[in-house]
Write a structure and sequence with these properties.
The chain is of the alpha/beta class and 307 residues long. The chain has a single domain, classed as Alpha-Beta Barrel (TIM Barrel), CATH 3.20.20.70. 48% of the residues lie in helices and 11% in strands. It has 12 helices and 8 strands. Helix 8 crosses helix 9. The termini are far apart.
Length: 307
């Protein structure tokens, strides 16, 4: 099988690009957000949301001790209830990958690491690639990279393609999620085009935001990206995942994103392999909503650990 050239891949992005109906996208996202879910389905959706979470800590005060504590929560979100599933991954800075890997040993929880000069993406490419290599050497299963928004906004699609492609190559067998930082892109047209370039370059998942700027993830943005994923698969046969991150704190919001994914991409994307939610405080609200579904009452927030 012949590997597509950069020119062919960027040409595909050109063909699938085009103008996004902003009013239509916002109206559809708003309509989907009002979908009601029956009680039995809601419990399934809440547990699915937990399984799709990347429990995340990306603060300057992070330490090995804090990561070990979060690893325990990632494996057993509700220690007193073994029926609650583990999250998909624990996402940390590269320096803390070893601590996360050790703490998660024997579990199904993946170690994800931001890399490639997160969150700005402004370091020279060779340093960004070296950071990816080190994170993987330390045990990272997944790598979250950022695109060069400056290059993209300047119209240098080839640089963006090359940097994502090189990052995927260096990551080897690790799963690569490419962050678009949609809040800096300025329009749905650009969000769609950035999604297509990242997918054409070989990324395994496209991700909305670093969570470090506002606006971060929004429902219309997720819809535009999901539609780009759908159209890319129709054109190439390649299935790419979606990760939403930044400002998603309530179970209600998580379910809204699940509805968008289901309605746009179908049941096959309702799995941690193809859908992720970047989460910190979200997990606690999901647990409280599960308690409410089971008992009819909200549990005391102090019952769950603060992240």
């Amino acid at each position: 099988m012949t590997t597509p050239t950069k020119e062919h891949s960027l040409g595909l992005a050109d063909r699938l690009g085009g103008s996004v109906d902003a009013v239509g996208a916002e109206a559809r996202a708003a309509a989907l957000s009002t979908r009601s879910i029956k009680k039995d389905s809601k419990m399934w959706a809440l547990e699915l949301a937990i399984r799709c979470c990347d429990l995340t800590s990306l603060e300057g005060q992070d330490s090995p001790g804090k990561i070990r504590q979060l690893a325990s929560k990632a494996m057993r979100p509700a220690p007193g209830n073994p029926e609650i599933p583990s999250v998909a991954a624990l996402c940390v800075y590269p320096r803390l990958v070893k601590a996360a890997k050790e703490a998660l040993a024997g579990s199904t929880v993946k170690v994800a690491s931001v890399a490639a000069a997160f969150p700005s993406g402004q370091s020279p490419l060779d340093l960004r690639l070296e950071e990816i290599e080190r994170a993987i050497a330390d045990g990272a299963d997944e790598i979250d990279i950022v695109i060069s928004r400056g290059a993209f906004l300047a119209g240098d699609d080839e640089m963006v393609f090359e940097e994502v492609s090189r990052s995927v190559e260096v990551a080897g067998g690790a799963h690569v999620k490419t962050i678009l930082e949609t809040g800096e892109l300025g329009s749905y047209d650009r969000i769609r085009r950035a999604s297509l370039i990242a997918m054409a370059a070989g990324t395994h998942t496209i991700k909305t935001s670093t969570g470090k700027i506002s606006p971060a993830s929004t429902l219309p943005t997720a819809l535009v990206m999901a539609e780009a994923i759908r159209d890319f698969q129709d054109a190439t046969g390649t299935a790419v995942g979606l990760k939403v991150a930044g400002g998603i704190r309530s179970a209600k919001d998580a379910i809204r994103y699940l509805v968008i994914v289901h309605e746009t991409l179908g049941d096959e994307w309702l799995t941690p392999d193809r859908f992720r939610i970047g989460a910190s405080s979200l997990v606690n609200d999901l647990l409280m909503q599960i308690d409410k579904q089971k008992t009819g009452f909200y549990s005391d927030p102090d019952r769950y650990t603060l992240d």
